[in-house]
Amino acid sequence: MPELRIEATINGRKVARPAKPHLRLLDFLRDDLELTGTKEGCGAGECGTCSVFVDGVLMKSCLVPVAKAQGTRIETVEALANSGELSILQKAFHKAGASQCGYCIPGMVMAATAAIRSNPFAGREEIKERLGGNICRCTGYQKIIDAVEMARDVQNGKLSASVFAEDEPEDGAFIGANVRRIDAPSKVAGALKYAGDMVMPHMLHVQVLRSPHAHARVVSIDVSEAEAMDGVEGVITSADVPGEDGFGVFVHDQPIMARGKVRYIGEAVAAVAAEDVLTAKRALAKIKVVYEPLPAVFDPDEAMQPGAPVLHDYAPDNITKHIPIRVGDVTKGFAASELIVEQTYSTQAIEHAYLEPEAGLGYVDADGVVTIISPSQNITHHREMLSKIIAQPISKVRFIMSPVGGGFGGKEDMIYQGMLALLAMKTRRPVRLVFTREESIISTAKRHPSRTTLKMGLSKDGRIRAFEMRMISDGGAYGMSTEGVMRKAAILAAGPYAIANVKIDTYGIYTNNTPSGAFRSFGALQAQFATESHLDICAEKLGLDPFEIRRINAMRDGATTHTKQKLKSVSILRALEAAEKASDWEKGAPVSRGETRSDHATQGIRPPCALGARFEAPAAAERSEVA
Amino acid sequence: MARKRGRGVAACWYGIARTATVDRAGAWAEIDDGGTVKILTGVTEIGEGILTVLAQIAAHEIGVKPADVTLGDNDTARSPEAAHAGATRQTYMIGNCVAIAARQAREKLVEVIADHWDVAASTIETANGEIWAAGTNHRISMGEAVRICKAKGVVPLGSGSFGTDTTGLDPIDGAGRPWQAYVFGCQVAEVEVDTITGEVQVLGIWAAHDVGRAVNPRGVEGQIEGGIVQALGQGLMEDYKLDQGRTSTSGFAKYILPTALDVPHVTSIIIEDPDPIGPLGVKGIGEPAMIPTIPAVMNAIYDAVGVRITSLPATPEKVLDAIKEKEKSHTRRNIPAVAAE
Lengths: 627, 341
Hints:
CATH class of the largest domain in chain B: Alpha Beta
Largest sheet of chain A: 7 strands, mixed
Number of strands of chain B: 13
Strand order of the largest sheet of chain A: 8-10-6-17-14-15-16
CATH topology of the largest domain in chain B: Aldehyde Oxidoreductase, domain 4
CATH superfamily of the largest domain in chain B: Aldehyde oxidase/xanthine dehydrogenase, molybdopterin binding domain
Oligomer: heterodimer
Structural class of chain B: alpha+beta
Helix content of chain B: 25-40%
CATH superfamily of the domain at 308-351 and 446-549 in chain A: Aldehyde oxidase/xanthine dehydrogenase, molybdopterin binding domain
Number of domains of chain B: 2
Strand content of chain A: 15-25%
Number of helices of chain B: 6
Distance between the termini of chain B: 29 Å
Radius of gyration of chain A: 28 Å
Order of helices and strands of chain B: EEEHEHEEEHEEEHEEEHH
């Protein structure tokens, strides 16, 4: 492949160097120039983490072929604080608390810089529109928008730059103070290295072969042709695992790579370490896997039927976990009820969509310690599992948790660190694996989809007399966090309400779908969605205000929970009162009274979004006023 | 009118730290040269702000500024077990560990300085990088205090371990003590539903959450705002679709996420009902923040247009279908009524 020679001005410096023609500008900046402040989030121009300026225009560098950089002037996030001092906008992000995991932040800072360069008087709605091409998964955007407004006002002299200063309590009482985030400067400047930004001398690049089948027996894997390729330093399959090949947050039912059979599309089957990513990818195509497709099951209700395909021998009924909760006698409770309402609810699988796709490095250090650097949400447990998998004592296994570019539970599963360890051991060289967005989506855990039947019995005064819930959750192909998710769903399903008769059953079921796992709020979200919807249905039928029905049933201090635990202080009544007061709630039964209610907010809301009408004229008027 | 407003409410509860098992964590603290503080613990930032929270706790407890705190973190071979970054446990588990370790290190320093000044240790106070004995002229910097302490052969160190008094669940009836700290919350949502397109816009959320004690209120707001928007994604648009185990939503072009244009204005109300067990009174906020949002929004949609969405997400297509279905059944019901007249 003939190389290009790229001559461009990058962050004010002339650069003239060869580049491979297949590179994107993003690769050229990150890999060739080591400007890793520019991040890759999706590789498809959808998320904005790779935003840079090309000749002053905001562009997504993942969509720009490197040849297009020829003769241009490029600015990356590293240029903004070139003098060593953060820009006004970066200071505002720091002050406002606009960065959390920080992975989207360099791109967001670039987009925000473009926004106030384009219109130094942009209003809040216009700022939102101008940031619309950049995704943030942590912050909810509010503090980002606050930061841009703050920077705009400081830049325009409406606000003093002293607004950026730290709040320092004179008495040294820092608990309760709005101390600026100590990690923010490194994030807004693009200086912080996530695992995918890290390089080690002599490092190899890893790619993973994944299953195209939802359920199949692996008849044979032939890696000889891949192994023989120039630049390939190691190929591994389950045959390379020296110890007990199983991991999982609760049940260790998942092998590092498919062992005997594959159970979902996207499951790792083999992995290659090569001198560069392209060679590793080409080697994957040379691995010959013979599969024998097996009947698969994709619906948890069907998976529970006798005769359904079985995923794991240890669970012939495909039940990963069933959690029962029993209090009192629901039959008597329903008999004593004056209103009984039954309804089914369902929730879908969703993706964590942290902006940082999975990435990690593995190496064996001079003392023979197998070391993994990755954004793992549980290095303690991963160390313990890996030590068994590679049959080494704990003292020979080390996990370093790199800054996590968003986790939300999705990085609790040790789905790739085992491959890094095995390849580092096999090649005796450092290895690095960086997932693509597609790889991250197809192979990592999702939030459990659920189907819930909820039956509630109440007396006319609004007291819940009986609560019966059955939740079926699709746990997918491996256990991951399913057991814990079912437990938390069950314990919290009936809400913060004192109920004498409770019957709850949650079931996590194996299917050949993408595995479900830990996801922020861990089953409680699915269960309480049902319960809190149901309470409104019941309140309407009883003519009760929705706050009132919750207050009537709320646990009080000293309450006993549905797991028969005695609580000390219970703050639900305070929370209800605070939300009711802050929202200026107008009392009334939830009878679909939207049109007639008089408490629609005039403050504390945003204007509804009308597309195309957000680049407002007032900004121009203001500009002439200032001029 | 094509666009209709509605409001809805939902509450929540949640348990803090690991569920139905004994949770534990550890941290080490050293008051170091120059009056700085070194904290070691085995986790790092996943975005929630834990490093800032730990720096604030150490600074508060020892009497220095957060900027003087160095955090050595994230390494199983170099720092004590902090275990996992999840379960809304960081501020609770690691925060309490750091407080215990910091108090112990401070106690060591205070003992030496009290002896040096010949005053009772109970009269010694520390804040913002200074140490003094109340009611005397003794007042020096923490840096000087560390120098004195070390000259007397003492390195002021502390270690903290924090565990929970919790149990598993009974396999038959689920009885047990899954957590020692619980939080509660409530959110009100205001929505606008377009009856022509079915699109739901969430305009405002009022979110009241008990966090025990807010170490960094702005950080708590950040967790609430971020949680609400994630929930809104699940409530209205996100959908990981599978057909025979194969996804059709493997990229962000097909898997739709909330952007700055989708998000409501969030008003956070922080409630502090201190945890009576841990030394700091803190609890947590990461996960519970997103629980009431979806039902509050679904209840608000019902308020606005009278349709009950029980299957997530409430996409425009689904909402529109439900509105049409409702109109049809209204018409059907109305026919005999008209005929009877």
